[in-house]
Design a protein that fits this description.
380 residues; TIM Barrel; eight-stranded parallel β-barrel; 11 strands
Length: 380
């Protein structure tokens, strides 16, 4: 067990945090000594309760957390997020372009319009600043709650303090880190551009010391977790040598058998190099890194319409991507070619489909070897 302040505060053995949409990954990582954090963007309160009840029944009392997306800025903020109204705002050019990409790969897009309403969960979270989901989350023994885009809403900070739950937030620049600290966030996650999902433009190797130094200069002792491209214990050790308190990882769990990714996507991830990702606004309206495929290439082409603001682009992209995922698993060649998922540049180091628990063990062993190398280098 590592003797660090963040480990003591959260009751974990090893400061490795696993962001995942798969409850099985969350449980496996927490039981292996790290902290699993369930990504719940778009979940209805009912589904969130079901997932957290399951985790409680299987995690053996080990600490775990929840990650929400409640952005500070999005289309329709302050005016509610009625799904029909949002869908009605989608330009025909965007609908037609998405359908056209599918048609080029032999996929009938007739069902897309009815599927667009399935984005209601994400829209609901935006409308009430995640209030309903927060109520559910804090009825469970979570030890951490994170907001993935911007400063957490005041209600999240208030409820975190009330329940003694650490509140974390992701940042992509040192200015954002200072703003988060000023707002009262307990843990800052410095996510470099190598990260899968939403990310900024600064690399992890630069961002982590920038954030650590900026907080130190302001006499702020908020712990910083490093994120972005970290898929080995040696990288985690390097981040901690730069002042991070631990590592926040998402991509490395995607090739584990417990992950939510389909077998088709898993195989594509295992075969991918670090150059096979693209940072694009085409999936959610905000920059996020994804596995490159003909789908992402199409949206980066000159013929593509400009991505819409969040959450409108989600209503354009998610229905086709859900259809692609379903058909790809049924053997549809066009869908298999188009299949993509969020993943960071660390995918080039993800070459073996091992269990989530084994990933944690590899992190621990690799971290120790890195520590020993550094110790030997400075030994008299």
């Amino acid at each position: 067990m590592m003797n660090t302040p963040i480990c003591k505060r959260l009751g974990i053995e090893f400061p490795l945090f696993a962001f995942s949409h798969a409850r099985d990954v969350v449980v496996a990582v927490s039981k292996a000594g790290g902290m699993g954090v369930l990504g719940v963007a778009g979940y209805s309160p009912e589904r969130l309760k079901e997932e957290l009840d399951w985790i409680d029944a299987h995690v053996g009392g080990r600490p775990y957390g929840v990650d929400l997306i409640v952005p500070n800025k999005y289309e329709g903020k302050g005016a509610g997020a009625d799904v029909e109204a949002l869908v009605g705002m989608l330009p025909q050019a965007h609908r037609d372009f998405a359908a056209g990409v599918l048609a080029q790969h032999g996929i009938d897009a007739e069902s897309l319009e009815s599927e667009r309403r399935n984005g209601a969960g994400f829209a609901r979270n935006l409308a009430d600043s995640g209030a309903a989901s927060l109520e559910v989350a804090f009825q469970h023994p979570i030890k951490l709650i994170a907001n993935a885009l911007g400063v957490p809403p005041p209600l999240m900070l208030e409820m975190g303090r009330k329940h003694g739950v650490a509140v974390a937030a992701l940042v992509g620049a040192k200015e954002h880190a200072l703003a988060q600290a000023a707002a009262g966030v307990d843990i800052i996650i410095a996510a470099g551009t190598e990260a899968g999902g939403h990310c900024g433009e600064v690399t992890t190797m630069v961002l982590v010391p920038e954030v650590v130094d900026a907080l130190r200069a302001a006499d702020i002792d908020t712990p910083v977790l490093a994120a972005g491209g970290i898929v080995t214990g040696a990288q985690m050790a390097a981040a901690m040598a730069m002042g991070a308190a631990g590592a926040w990882c998402g991509s490395v769990w995607l090739t584990t058998p417990e992950s939510e990714t389909s077998p088709v996507v898993k195989q594509k991830l295992l075969a991918a190099s670090s150059r096979d990702t693209v940072r694009s606004r085409s999936r959610t309206g905000k920059p996020s890194r994804q596995l490159r495929s003909p789908w992402t290439d199409a949206w980066e082409s000159e013929a593509a319409p400009k991505p819409l603001p969040m959450p409108l682009q989600t209503f354009v992209s998610e229905p086709p991507l859900r259809l692609i995922d379903k058909l790809s698993q049924g053997g549809h060649a066009g869908a298999q070619a188009l299949a993509t998922y969020w993943v960071g540049q660390g995918v080039g180091l993800m070459n073996a489909p091992i269990s989530a628990g084994a990933v944690v063990q590899q992190f621990k062993e690799d971290f120790l070897r890195a520590y020993e190398r550094l110790a030997a280098a400075v030994d008299d």
